[in-house]
Amino acid sequence: MIGIVGGGIAGLAAAYRLRKRGHDVRVFEASDSLGGLAATYETNGDDIERYYHHLSKSEETIVELADELGLGDDLEWRIGKNAYYVDGVVHPLDTAWQIAAYPHMSLYDKFRLGMLTLGIDVRGGIPDFDAYEELAEYEHTPIEDFVVEHTTRGVYDNFVDPLLDGKFGERKHDVSAAWFLGRVRFRGERDLLRGELLGYFDGGFAPLIDALIEAVGRENIQTGSRVTELDTEGDEVDTITVETAEGTEVHEVDSVVVAAMPNVLEDLTGFECEIDFQGAVCGLATMSESLMDTYWLNIAHDAPFGSLIEHTNFVPRERYGGDHLLYVASYVQGPHEDLWQMTDEEVEDVWFDEIEDMFPDFDRSAVEEFKVSRNPRAGPVYERGYLDLVVPYDLADDVAEGVYYAGMASEAQYPERSLNGGIVAGYEVADRISRRLQ
């Protein structure tokens, strides 16, 4: 049997691939729910993710998986309207005309930024169309140095720097230009007349997780089952110990996939991962009226949140019983931050005080319900030299033969964490296990 530690999308994807190839698998999930960061809330209609989700056109593996599971026709590509809130004004930034009209950068700033997003280096006057293909070349370059050199100081100060504040806070100067370039490349297809195309499933991501569970086989998945020990004999994995409500179980295994955060891997094997993670505090407001006409609003000033995402400006609110659904999201760089220490009620008060200041016409009584989700390890801090810190898929040389890793610290989650990256990581370890067992 192949034991899989973690019932998030990476663990389920690994189990799915291995089952398709005829292997006996068992997924062990410590909590009572599956799907990890794709877990959901109930609404007055379709379920919705606790943490905002959508797909970019660059995420091809998850689209292929949806097709295999019979959900290809349920994936809808919609325009996600983006904007930037600067000095009390919402500036749409979807079409070429809106970008041209943005007043906080010069025309030359916008030209240089546009060339960078297209992957073209125009320094020296001769366009280089292949300048940014090798991300590793910029692994040790600070983002500020890179952006100022390859675009302008105005682009960094008036556009990039506020975004980094919202994403990485006090750690922004540690992050590499390789991440920045990769993040630009990660973004999807853009219609210059309408905006960026983003994907979302009819019914949300829950049907995809459910279909994956059914494909793996519910009889092959145990929730409420925490793997507490991984034993090796002769430098090869031998058994795993699992704690459940009924007691302790010991399972013989041919291989083990740790599809969880690296702290779980360290607890089980002693393998130390040096990647730092940031936490997330994400609120979901159910409202009787809309806040704005934008899907994704980035904030340029020092707000107590990084972005406002009105989901029902992307997916029709009729799917949620007619309610308007708004995510309020912020990253935290550690438990020392005030936001992490606040109660849910304090978070709501602080956040909506700011929203009322930003949108004076908004009636706070329109908020009918507000739920807060927190995760201490929502994503990596993509610091300089990050690729040297990723955990290998195959840990035979570091731990024991038959031990594999498919969690958030894997290479598949670079340059940006995503559900697609989780599936890629799951497939990568499944392929390696199949080759080994054959």
TrEMBL record:
It comes from the Archaea. One of its GO terms (molecular function) is oxidoreductase activity. Pfam families: Amino_oxidase (PF01593). Residues 9-433 form the Amine oxidase domain. This is Protoporphyrinogen oxidase. It comes from Haloferax larsenii.
